[in-house]
Amino acid sequence: MDTKVLSIFKNDENKARFTAAYDQALTEWPVPYESCFVTTSFGMTHIIKSGDVSKPPLLLIHGMTATSLMWSPNIAEWSAYYYVNCIEVPGDFGKSMLLKQMSSNEAAAEWLQELAAELQLNDFHLLGHSMGGFLALNFAMAYPKRLRSLGLLAPASSFAPLSRMFYFHMIPAVMFPTKYMIDRAFTWCMSPHHNLNLLPMSYRALITASYKNCKPKLGLLPTVYSDEELSQLKVPTLFIVGEDEVIYREAIPDVLAKASRIPDITTATVPRAGHFLSIEQKEEINRLVLDFLAKHPTSPGHT
Fold first, then answer.
1. What is the per-residue DSSP string for 19-35?
2. How far apart are CA 70 and CA 44, in angstroms?
3. How far is CA 106 from CA 138, 139, 159, in A?
4. Most buried by CB count within 10 Å: which residue of 24, 150, 179, 195?
5. Which is nearest to 191 in space by CA: 278, 130, 77?
6. What is the pLDDT of residues 31-68, one digit of tens each?
7. What's the whole-model pTM score?
8. Under CATH, to which class is 12-294 assigned?
9. Cβ(279)–Cβ(250) under 8 Å?
10. Is 14 exposed, middle or buried (0-12, 13-18, 19+ CB in 10 A)?
11. Cα 281 from Cα 274, distance rounded (Å)
């Protein structure tokens, strides 16, 4: 295997600026944590762990370019009941190190399978946002018996194609990372009821540093699953979307209708929330997630 790191950084100065912003934002993580790396054939996956190791395991996968710091508004409530592992996708913005790209859905599922094996996790809860939601669903489709439950927060594609406006706003922010382009992209993602001032200043600084100093190398675009494929998934699933979501090409009711093809699914639409629903309406998201997880307890000896 080629062991050369496929760095998201152009040079050491870019890496240093990103790392400084990341570490500053992490100082505001509201609960005790452990930062570690887990080795897979795809690279070193960075994980922020919070909570009691004896509690049921919950793995979180961030949205594309959002890093695990996006979970700061949720981690205190969730880690009170679960052993939470916030994993960062190799090739995306964050501290993970990529050795080979996840160039297919099968490869992405294998990365998570390897990671869960290294963490010695079985019968665990898995929840993801946006691209992380797609990766979580993709894993559930391939390895359903590994999961106790699946949580999807506005998963990218999965049930409906991404809107053309998504590419219109997000690609320029990556290609031409000026403050204007970055703010334009993230404002578009939010409900009209909110603005960027809702985001903690340290996290806004991290977003800016990420786009200015990193280039994503994930190598995978989210896909849409067919009704037949979705109907075969037997994992208890929670799907939450904001009423002001903008990333889908189809209307929210149509997206929910497609999601309903999963036999055991709970759906919710959150008022006054856009794509960053876990931040925009954190209290409601925290409640919905905890209520759902409580209905699907892990078996004894879950790790």
1. HHHHHHHHTT-SS--EE
2. 20
3. 8, 9, 18
4. 150
5. 278
6. 999 999 999 999 999 999 999 999 999 999 999 999 99
7. 0.96
8. alpha beta
9. no
10. middle
11. 9
